[in-house]
């Protein structure tokens, strides 16, 4: 069987509205389509008997490599999905991707957004809701679990309703936390009152 396949640059062509009327606004970075055909193209010709001839035109015309229009690679998406499956929080993944920025080497991963993470969760069918067995999870439980992993933040005291405490009532709830900068300020300016 003979045939020809054309693979054009994903920036080629004009933005086309699907359907009669657009209900949502266009993305803030605009469409990735440049309004004309880019010269970069791959042409695959199958001559029969599993013989393929590939012609690759690598030069792009009419657009630059703009990071906001670059898609994440399959490997990048899989790495993020594996972190999510391990229970790493969205915030940690975002912080990690943004902290890997080096001068003159901005990548698509440095521009990762919560929406990107949610799309990855959806496409990999990852459910990251935390649950605590035999009890409804409270905000303080989930917060405590997340903060236990982070050495820059400390929960100094967590007293849940129904727990006994020598200074608080049984129905009282108390959460006292501190981050590193607050701890530094307390050590520098705080004093112990008799």
**Number of H- or I-type helical stretches:** 5
Helical content stands at 25-40%
Mean pLDDT: 79
β-sheet strand percentage: 15-25%
Rg, rounded, reads 26 Å
Unreliable stretches (pLDDT < 50, length at least 5) are: 131-136
Measured distance between first and last alpha carbons: 91 Å
DSSP summary, beta strand count:
5
Task: For the largest sheet, list the strands in their spatial order.
Answer: 1-2-3
Can you write the helix and strand succession as a string?
EEEHHHHEEH
Please state the overall shape, judged from the principal axes of the Cα atoms. Answer: elongated
Largest sheet: 3 strands, antiparallel
Into how many domains do the coordinates divide? 3
Secondary-structure content class: alpha+beta
Structure in words:
There is one protein chain. The chain has 194 residues and is an alpha+beta fold. The protein folds into three domains: 56 residues, no CATH class; 54 residues, no CATH class; 51 residues, no CATH class. The protein has five helices and five strands. The chain has a three-stranded antiparallel β-sheet with strand order 1-2-3, with no helix packed on it. A two-stranded antiparallel ribbon has the order 4-5. A hairpin with a 2-residue loop joins strand 2 and strand 3. Helix 1 crosses helix 3. The longest helix has 13 residues. The radius of gyration is 26 Å and the shape is elongated. 4% of the residues are buried. About 3% of the residues have low confidence.
